[in-house]
Write a structure and sequence with these properties.
Length: about 90
Amino acid sequence: MTSMDDILKLAALVAAVVGVSKSVAAGTSAESLINRIAPISSLIVAAVFILVPDAVQAKMTLIATVGLTAAGAYSLVKPKIGSGGGPQ
């Protein structure tokens, strides 16, 4: 049986993965398509996480967590254009 903690962790990962895909498409011609298919893509990503064997799910969760954390940390520390934070 899956615990509530596991469900909440997977829900957060699915939301983050779909959110990243939406932010990547922002400002492009694919933005409206991505916004329209976001709910079904959430179900597909969730199904992949849930239906794979436990060992694979654990690795996928680890990869997604590390990848999304690294991407978020990079976006916080990268120099902003025009902010004077870049190399002199």
